[in-house]
Amino acid sequence: MVASAEIFISTAQRFLCCGKKKRQIPHSLCLDIAVQIIAVDLGLKPAVLYDFNGACAEQIQQYVRSLQEAGELTTTLQILSINENCLVVNSIRMKEHLSGVLKKNNVLIVDVCPWKEQPCLIVMDSSTKRMVKDMLDFITDKDNKHPSVSVVTEELYDQWNLCTLFGILLGYPASYWFDQVQSVENCLTMTPLVVNKVWVCWPLCDPKLHSSCLYSFSVPEVLQAEVGTYIENWMERLRTQFGEQKVFTELSVSQETVMLPSVAL
Question: One Pfam family for this entry, by name (predicted)?
């Protein structure tokens, strides 16, 4: 058991260290990274945004490829680079997810334009649908032997609202939107936000279970009555998916209401 956990630690420290001094990544962070990648591999989430350190797309590709060759991952994952943000994507799961977004409008869109008195729900507009369609066309589901790096060019994403896009790509039930032509600010300053977190444990790391945050997203408290049932249904679907795998245990959900002096999206 410990030897298997060491594979994830040694692989992360071999490929993901960055900076001039190449400082080693702490063991706990190596395991958190592994949990996220494995969750994508299992289809528990369509993608993960790699924001753990400054590793580049090529380093992430080498990390994922090494785990595949070691037999620790079963799905060929794709690395997307969008405006220097790297996502590790389960291509098959992502195409299913984006198709559902287009056909069923199954993502809540929260308008947080700065001139709003408070956030509100809106219908997905044509520009957002076009962005999702472009992303769906860009994702490849070819059965490559090794993970590929795909760079979304500025010509493609220049008019996209990346805040909204990332919320959708990461599989959140709700995503923030603002009119970026008018302003990149928002109306969330000192607005009560309900932060939802989904936690899992990884028995591979016994004797001390390693608990990691699988999902973390917020919804304005003022919309809780409107979105509560929807989010609970999203949670139930996740619990069903969770019950179909045997890697993680102890799925739990936490909620916390916060107010922040500024919210960067």
Answer: DUF4504
